[in-house]
Amino acid sequence: MTNSSTTRRRFVQGSTATAIAPFFIGRSASAADEYVVKVATVAPPDTAWATLVNKFRSWAKDKSGGRVKVKAYLGGALGDEISTAEGTKRGTIQAWGGSMGALASAVPELDCLELPYLFKSAKKADAVLDKIRPQLHDLLWDRGYKLMFYSENGYRSIGALHPVEGVKDLKGRKFRSQQSDVHLNTWRAWGASPVPMAVTEVLSSLQTGVVDGYDNTPVFTFAASWYVATRHFTLTEHIYQPAAVVFSRKFWESLPSDLQTALSPENEDVSKMESRGRRNIRAMEPQLIQNFSDAGIKVHKMSESDKKQLAAPAQKAWDQFEKGTSKAGKELFKTIKANL
Fold first, then answer.
1. Which H or E element spans position 4?
2. Phi-psi region of 191 (alpha: psi -120 to 50; beta: other; left: phi over 0)
């Protein structure tokens, strides 16, 4: 494990830019000292992520003296999470943002952040993520990324065409899964048949019966219109899904030092935007739950004992991660568990 002083030096060394949502940056052809920021995210318009992009646009323009200009591409307009994450690692894309589960396609150690029933509360998730920020920065830096900014999708629950009250209602059924080992292994631990697919394919797959259901957060379920093909929504709250914004390390190291300093994620304004983004997403959830009922969708609330019945078999996903991950993944997971 990297010692604390080395970790701190490396975190500060790479910590001089930020963003609020997934994005790409390219050099402007018309002005040598201007940068055009293309913000790419699978999050649809009119979401908390879109709001963060707009705030970043103003902030970046102000801090850079107009040299950084932001343009947003929402709804996967520049590609799905996995392909753009890989492009960012290679340096063909300058920056990216989305779920940790998607970023784990390029940095598998991050899968531990989305293990089922890992974080008992959003407050605990905040505390742990803040604790491991330097360690996570170093891991990403070594893999070709520069950690910029946390956000979140919130707690994932299960939407389906049929009621889901426990493991018995999942066995043998086809559920859309995010394309990560932890998500796939969680479904398998419950006896379901996971079908990995990109978010852009889910609605049509629900409507045509390719899958019986899915898991995601209430905010994303509505933003992506998955609720249209949903009859039941069960508040399993089985995975807290953090999100992150990263630069390509290659691109980051090519930025002039004055812009690195101006856009530093250690800037107090960035910390405030991060906190505000988390609050805004969480504040929406009660109304979104009500919206399910208003749309004729049956909402099923789970007791803590019901959740424990789901958590017990899902422990297998924890064991699979720890057995299969690298030394760096084991060290990261050890730090997380020590702070739960």
1. helix 4-14
2. left
C-alpha neighbours within 13 Å on the C-beta side of residue 275: 8
Task: Say if strands 95-99 and 193-196 run parallel, antiparallel, or are unpaired.
Answer: unpaired
CB count in 10 Å sphere of residue 308: 11
- What is the per-residue pLDDT across 29-80, written as a single tens digit (0 to 9) for each? 344 588 877 767 777 787 777 787 778 778 878 988 998 777 777 787 878 8
Own/partner long-range contacts of 301-307 (Cβ < 8 Å, ≥24 apart): 301/235, 302/234, 302/235, 302/236, 302/237, 306/165, 306/166, 307/117, 307/236, 307/237, 307/238
Q: How far is CA 5 from CA 74, 132, 172, 277, in A?
A: 39, 14, 50, 30
Residue of 201, 261, 253 whose CA lies nearest to 226: 201
Pairwise CA distance, residues 214 & 157, whole Å: 8
**Three-class SS state of 222:** helix
CA atoms within 13 A on the CB side of 327: 2
CA distance linking residue 234 with residue 303, whole number of Å = 11
Assigned token pair, 202: 């889910």
Residues 6+ apart with CB under 8 A from 187: 170, 175, 177, 193, 194
Using DSSP, state whether 108 is helix, strand or coil: helix
| DSSP conformation letters of 40-92 | E-SSPSSSHHHHHHHHHHHHHHHHTTT-EEEEEE-TTTT--HHHHHHHHHHTS
Which letter does DSSP use for residue 297 in this model?
P
Contacts 24+ apart (CB under 8 A), 190-194: 190/310, 190/313, 190/314, 191/167, 191/313
Q: 103-113: per-residue pLDDT in tens?
A: 999 999 999 99
- Name the token pair of 197: 């697919």
Tokens representing residue 214 in the block = 């899915």
CA distance 89 to 109: 15
